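Q: Structure for this?
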Amino acid sequence: MAMPIVETVNLRKTYILGKVPVNALCGVNLKVEKGDFIAILGPSGSGKSTLLNMIGALDTPTEGKVLIDGVDISTLNDNRLAEIRHRVGFVFQFFNLIPRLTALGNVELPLSIAGLSKNEKRKRAENLLEIVGLTDRMKHKPAELSGGQRQRVAIARALANDPSFLLMDEPTGNIDSKTASDIMDLVQELNEKKGVTIVMITHDQNLAGRAKRIVRMLDGTVFKEVKQ
Amino acid sequence: MKSGDIFGYAFGAIRLRKLRAGLTTLGVVIGIAAIVALLSISQGLQISITDQLQSGFATDTLIVSPSSGGVFGGIGGAAGGSASDFSLFVSDVDLINDIDGVVASAAIVQKVSYIKATDQTVTAYVVGVDFATYSQIYSSTFVAESGEILTSPESKTAVVGKSVSDPWENGTLICSVGEIVEVVWTNTTVRPPVNQTVEVTVAAVLAEIGGLSLTGPSDYSVYLPIEDAQSLFGTEECDRIIVQLTSEDDETIESVSEAIDELFDAQVSVTSPTAILSIISSVFSTVELFLAGIAAISLLVAGVGIMNIMIVSLMERTREIGLLKALGMKSRTVLAIFLSEAVIIGLLGAVFGIGLGWALALAAAQIFTGGGVTAATGQAAASTGFVITPVLTPTVLLGAFGFGIAVSVIFAIYPAWRASKLKPVDALRYE
């Protein structure tokens, strides 16, 4: 069996809120294989976002391991972590687009960070915006786009550096259900047709139903895993 | 990330907050402008004053005067009275001439007097000198424009400075060669004061010398043979003695100065014009340093402004920084972006500051030259050629430029460092 893209081993994370330690994750073991589409379901405070941040190398564990492509990220320095994040595509609930940049500029940003030339950036960004169906909105700034369009830009941006996997933190949490369904069509298509590995957090049972696997979390642990 | 992209990103961030960035830049502009204006004006002033002093200078001379008076007291003539009992005498010239390294020396008797021509009266220094020696020492400035300076002049002949002959510079002459003028000196040492008068024939008019003529011949003097001056002023004493040396090197200046000091039992002050110049230039250096210091403080204030604004900007952009890091940006690139913003502000501030400073310097020079300073030099002539031209040396230019950018960057280091150290997960959660 091939090595999983992401693997967490007995992952624990404890925050100190004020003076009280809060156990956000209490020993999570999870494997993400290539081509997976995992939906993480769970109520607020169950540790979904914390888990996602760990998998994306945005945060470091208190105990346990996160292996991304077989590399334990807790052993990496700041620079190497930044390089790991190149290989991760993030999609946030609140889009997190840069308001002063156009759709094209936002998609070009991670390509700039990767050090691509102007022409390469332009070509690739245009191509990605075409994939998410925004060919005619490239020169628009986020404020001139609808919620669904913004999330499409964010997805195009997440795909920019050909990531090993996409991490989506409630990608449809901030848009209406019709648009959410369209976005999910896109996500599903990316997974099925382009083979993009996806880990998605959601509240929505229906949306989770579109994933290949559902991981249910409660109080910092995985209490149920369902293959569909 | 490519450096072009880093600058582009930083520039975009600045453009987004035009007013704030503009005001921050204005702080730098004012600081740099103050430095450039103050330094270029004071350097222009220094050059102008040095030029004035140097006209009629002879670097191979020493000036001997009774110690309390000094050169500056001596210039004051009758007004700068000597407190000590010591006096120099005209005959002391012979003693000085015997010193090794001395070519010649000339005693100078000088008082402020009236010069009466047919229908005009002007005030001038009446200076008694030995024409032969004096014209030898100041061979380039004690030169006749009209008439002739005789080395053994007849009694009661005078050589007049250009500004005494032609005070308005418009051809309306007070006196010219061949005319007879009356020299009136008011002796205030007796009660009641008495006017001493002598009629002299103008033998020559000097070519224009220019400047303030601190030590040498001046446009505002009337020169009489020393015997005539002595009998007019009724004195054997002299105000100072000009000593011409065999060489202008420091060694000769030093040894002759010591010899003269010894000769008069340390009761004279021996000044070298070169020394005066170096004193003036060191005074100016101090003044410049002081002015630059004041201006630098205003730039530091601007620096604090930059720091303040960058910390605010850092807080506003915390989520953005978190996002950049989530997209794989390295800490040092975040640092570079923030420092680039400071460099852009510093660069703009320096460029506009230098421009504004230079404009201020020119305006100030215009005001100086057109107004007070000329009049303050007194005398009949309307223009003594005292013009301040601001000077912007490459050192000041590059210094201001570098300092502007350096201050901006230094004060941005802390906010930039803080931005680069933000943890992506915390930054993204920041509200």
